[in-house]
Amino acid sequence: MDSDLGRLLYDYLLKMGMSEGLASDLNFVLLLVVVLVLAFLLDLVVWKVLRAISIRLARRTKNNYDNFLVAHKVPRSVAHIFPLLFLFEFLPVVFVDFDYAGGIALKIVKILFVLQTLAVFRRFFKSTKDYLKILPKFKDKPIASYTQVFMIFAWIVGMLTIFVIVTETSIWKFFATLGAASAVVLLIFKDSILGFVASIQVTINDMVRIGDWITFDKYGADGDVIEITLATVKVQNFDKTITTIPTYALISDSFKNWRGMQVSGGRRIKRALIISQKSIRFLTQEDVEALKKIQLVADYLSQRSEQITTYNRDNGINKELLINGRNLTNFGVFRKYVTNYLEKHSAINKKMTLMVRQLEPTPQGIPLEIYVFSADKRWENYEYVMADIFDHLLAALPYFSLEIFELPMYVGGKK
């Protein structure tokens, strides 16, 4: 049938008196032009039909997925497949007298068909990725990693198919040859394999999401995760620079994810005042009366003074020396003042840990650590709240006769 159709013009040209060689060549050229024009027209018609259908569906449906398919030209890529199928069927008719050239032409068409199919898959996965990224459920998931994995598998299958088409060999023979070169293949795709495994572990263990604030000292990253792919994780630092981290580094190295703080009720403030030990002393009765003018500790001083006086009197304590019996210290009263101050501070989350503690003395002084949580977690507001608290506490120290430790200055070899 193919030979009869392919020689239809050939027979007609012979009847017109042309030589066999010229008739054969002209028959081939004319048939090739006709088939290519028909393939082009088929491509155009199918594209027009698919575009009309896809646009109509996109307008009628409430789901935005079809809009992404149209935006990424998936129907256009699908339309290109039909002319290739047409050529695959009719090229044997065109090359009826040229078997060798016809075989090469068919191989080219088959390869183009495989590449076009891969293009359809690529556009489809890209549309799916962009669509899922706008859904709240998948907004912080590494969708790009999964689409890249699927495309890698698609390309592997595509390249194997092209190899079989070009070499006309068995796929099983190819796999046998590939097994001998597996070490080289693993070396070439090492990063992709490690990234694939890492992407799965990161997702399953929920280690990192898009939008998380992470700190990765090894790579100088300190900012928000903006993209997670098969091979890399992109972090936009707070100075607006971009740091690229290998995906597998997230499971092989240590990094800090601030998501726990961001989803909690507050952001931790953990900072200490280093109090000079020389300024710490017992309080006399006159000191206590003077400190009662400070409203935040007035009730505390009245209650504690009464308890201490009763204890010392009942136990016959000699109070000629302040060290005897129970006493108040300026450091202890200041610690109570700081606690009361923080409990009444509007920017502190009272439902989370609120603690003022004395740490182990150091050669520089005694650290008084404030451990609380700012209700406002935004960086600039958090810094303002922390500065506001310590501004006040530093200014309050002289009222309790306390001093911050400072290194002595030496001028000309003297203090």
UniProtKB/TrEMBL annotation:
Xref: PANTHER family: MINICONDUCTANCE MECHANOSENSITIVE CHANNEL YBDG (PTHR30414:SF0)
Protein name as annotated: Mechanosensing system component YbdG
Membrane topology: Multi-pass membrane protein
Gene3D superfamilies in UniProt: 2.30.30.60
GO biological process annotation, one example: cellular response to osmotic stress
Major location category of this protein: membrane
Boundaries of every Mechanosensitive ion channel MscS domain copy: 191-259
GO molecular function, one term: mechanosensitive monoatomic ion channel activity
